[in-house]
Fold this protein.
Amino acid sequence: MSLTIHSSFLPHLDPDASLAFYRDVLGFEVRNDVGYEGMRWITVGPADQPDTAIVLHPPGVGPGMTDDDRNALLEIIAKGSYFGVNLAATDLDATFATLEAAGAEVVQEPVDQPYGLRDCAFRDPAGNMIRIQQVG
C-alpha cells in the first residue's frame, strides 16, 4: 500500500482574511476558490508541492449539524484550539522573521524543543495553530 497526503482541511471564519494570510503571508498558491450559497472553499498549497493542499472551509456546515453544534464549534475555533497544521522550513529563523514582519500573530518564537525539534508557532486569521519546524 502506498498512501500520500492529498489535502487537509482547516476552518476559516473570514475567507478573504484567510486567503490573504495563506497566499500573501505564507506564499502558498491558490489552486481553487469555490463559492456556494454565500460560502467559500479555498484550496491553497506550496507551489513546489502540487499534490499536497490545504482546503480552507466554512465551519459547521453539513448535514446533521445543529445550531448548538455550530455555536460550540465556533467557540472552540475562536479559542484557537480546534485545528492546526505543521509546516516545515529549511531556515526557521528567517521564515519566522518574514512572517512576523508580515504581521502574522506570533504564538511562539523559534525554540529548541526538549523532544528534539526546533519550531515556532503562529495563528492564522481563524485562530488555527500554524507550527513551523526546522528541517534539513
In short: The chain has one domain: 7-134.
